[in-house]
Amino acid sequence: xxxxxxxxxxxxxxxxxxxxxxxxxxxxxxxxxxxxxxxxxxxxxxxxxxxxxxxxxxxxxxxxxxxxxxxxxxxx
Length: 76
Ligand SMILES: [Zn+2]
Hints:
Elements (H helix, E strand, L loop, with lengths): L1 E3 L6 E11 L2 E8 L7 E7 L21 H4 L6
Antiparallel strand pairs: 1-2, 2-3, 3-4
The structure holds zinc ion (ZN).
Zinc ion binds next to loops.
Protein backbone atom coordinates (compact mmCIF):
# COMPACT_ATOMS: atom_id res chain seq x y z
CA UNK A 1 0.00 0.00 0.00
CA UNK A 2 1.20 3.49 -0.72
CA UNK A 3 0.16 7.05 0.10
CA UNK A 4 0.77 10.42 -1.47
CA UNK A 5 3.21 12.65 0.40
CA UNK A 6 1.27 15.66 1.69
CA UNK A 7 4.37 17.88 1.27
CA UNK A 8 5.73 17.13 -2.21
CA UNK A 9 3.01 14.99 -3.83
CA UNK A 10 5.29 12.00 -4.56
CA UNK A 11 4.46 8.44 -3.54
CA UNK A 12 5.19 7.27 0.02
CA UNK A 13 5.96 3.57 0.56
CA UNK A 14 5.49 1.47 3.69
CA UNK A 15 8.84 0.68 5.31
CA UNK A 16 7.60 -1.28 8.35
CA UNK A 17 4.22 -2.13 9.85
CA UNK A 18 2.79 -3.80 12.93
CA UNK A 19 -0.58 -4.88 14.25
CA UNK A 20 -2.24 -2.09 16.27
CA UNK A 21 -5.54 -3.83 17.14
CA UNK A 22 -7.79 -6.65 15.97
CA UNK A 23 -8.86 -4.55 12.99
CA UNK A 24 -5.99 -2.10 12.45
CA UNK A 25 -2.36 -1.92 11.45
CA UNK A 26 0.12 0.91 12.00
CA UNK A 27 2.72 1.58 9.30
CA UNK A 28 5.72 3.83 8.81
CA UNK A 29 5.66 5.55 5.41
CA UNK A 30 8.71 7.09 3.75
CA UNK A 31 8.50 9.58 0.89
CA UNK A 32 10.18 8.36 -2.30
CA UNK A 33 11.48 11.88 -3.01
CA UNK A 34 14.98 11.97 -1.49
CA UNK A 35 14.87 15.79 -1.49
CA UNK A 36 11.72 15.72 0.66
CA UNK A 37 12.62 13.08 3.25
CA UNK A 38 9.20 13.02 4.91
CA UNK A 39 8.50 9.98 7.13
CA UNK A 40 5.06 9.54 8.71
CA UNK A 41 2.98 7.01 10.61
CA UNK A 42 -0.39 5.90 9.22
CA UNK A 43 -3.15 3.54 10.26
CA UNK A 44 -5.02 1.08 8.04
CA UNK A 45 -8.28 -0.08 9.62
CA UNK A 46 -11.12 -2.41 8.66
CA UNK A 47 -14.29 -0.39 9.26
CA UNK A 48 -17.21 -2.30 7.69
CA UNK A 49 -18.05 -5.86 6.65
CA UNK A 50 -19.33 -6.35 3.12
CA UNK A 51 -19.52 -10.18 3.16
CA UNK A 52 -19.58 -11.83 6.63
CA UNK A 53 -16.89 -14.41 7.45
CA UNK A 54 -17.80 -18.10 7.29
CA UNK A 55 -16.25 -18.60 10.75
CA UNK A 56 -16.55 -15.20 12.51
CA UNK A 57 -14.37 -14.24 15.47
CA UNK A 58 -16.73 -13.35 18.37
CA UNK A 59 -14.32 -10.56 19.38
CA UNK A 60 -14.80 -8.79 16.04
CA UNK A 61 -17.93 -6.66 15.68
CA UNK A 62 -17.62 -4.73 12.42
CA UNK A 63 -20.95 -3.36 11.16
CA UNK A 64 -22.35 -5.19 8.14
CA UNK A 65 -23.31 -2.97 5.22
CA UNK A 66 -24.83 -3.51 1.81
CA UNK A 67 -22.23 -3.55 -1.00
CA UNK A 68 -23.51 -0.27 -2.48
CA UNK A 69 -22.80 1.47 0.85
CA UNK A 70 -19.35 -0.10 1.14
CA UNK A 71 -17.76 1.57 -1.86
CA UNK A 72 -15.35 4.37 -0.98
CA UNK A 73 -16.14 7.84 -2.32
CA UNK A 74 -14.66 8.68 -5.71
CA UNK A 75 -11.97 11.32 -5.34
CA UNK A 76 -10.71 13.45 -8.20
ZN1 LIG B 1 7.57 14.09 0.07
